Amino acid sequence: MDNQFHLDDTVAVVTGASGTLGPIWVGALLDAGARVFALDLERATVSPGLQSLLDRYSQATHSTGAPRLRLHHADVMDRDSLVVAQAACVGTMGVASVLVNNAGIDQPASTDCAVSYRMEDVPMDVSRAILEVNTLGTFQVSQVFGGEMVKARRGSIINIGSLYASVSPDLRLYDHMNLDPPFLKPPAYGASKAAVVNLTRYLATAWGPYGVRVNTLSPGGVLGAQDPEFQRKFNDRVPLGRMAEAADLTGPLRFLASDASAYVTGTELRVDGGFTAW
């Protein structure tokens, strides 16, 4: 790995570490040499991917004697818990210079979804929760951890966006699912991610003079447990002809976290196989 991509003396914070993408970000940062302070809700089930990393790294230490990986419980909507987490991060690993705002609420395309709604029936509470966690939660975590970066006059904040920050979900991707009402991607999801992209620009301009960079990384559809017909439809919609895999996301994250992107701020890096080019 080129030295400019190394994160050997870096402390990184990742929110939503037990989520679908959380272990990808945590693993990418660890592989680049960073010490990672992983955050998630106390009630969140530790995913197999994160557990594997905990098994591998939780007993490992950096040359400073600090642990390589620590899981801490906090809620992005609870400022007090974030302040406690920030102090714990400093006490065990040091001041974070990388923050990955990954925590969020989504509804993956699946016939197993517990509840589906018609557009006109989507409850306000559902939309409110998505908007609050995905947008306000991202801002609040940035306030707590980014504020310390401002004091240190260095840092990289990476907000996790989505291709749906730029385009609307194509409802035809879901019309084969035997659901009544039909599967509906939450309308508030794309709105929340579009807000994150604009928040990124705002923070980038406000904190640029203090050496803190802020960017959005927006993945396209990531291969998981989607049904074969959905995958076929989605792949037909992507210029590169496939869904993203974990390895497709790690390089872009390391780029934004490291000095390789030292002159990059206020941008949205779309990693979507060309989906939004059409």
Task: Draw up the topology in text.
Layout: E1 11-14, H1 22-31, E2 35-40, H2 48-57, E3 69-73, H3 79-92, E4 98-101, H4 124-152, E5 155-160, H5 187-207, E6 212-219, H6 228-236, H7 246-257, E7 268-271
Parallel strand pairs: 1-2, 1-4, 2-3, 4-5, 5-6, 6-7
Helix pairs in contact: 1-7, 3-4, 4-5
Descriptors:
278 residues; alpha/beta; Rossmann fold; seven-stranded parallel β-sheet; 13% strand; globular
Q: How is this structure best described in words?
A:
The chain has seven helices and seven strands; from the N terminus they run βαβαβαβαβαβααβ. The chain has 278 residues and is α/β, with parallel strands linked by helices. The protein has one domain: 3-Layer(aba) Sandwich (Rossmann fold), CATH 3.40.50. Helix 1 crosses helix 7 and helix 4 packs parallel to helix 5 (187-207). The chain is globular. The model has no long low-confidence stretch (mean pLDDT 94).
Low-pLDDT stretches are none
Oligomer: single chain
Remind me, CATH topology? Answer: Rossmann fold
Largest sheet: 7 strands, parallel
Number of domains: 1
Helicity level: 25-40%
Care to give the gist of this entry?
The chain has 278 residues and is α/β, with parallel strands linked by helices. It is 38% helix and 13% strand.
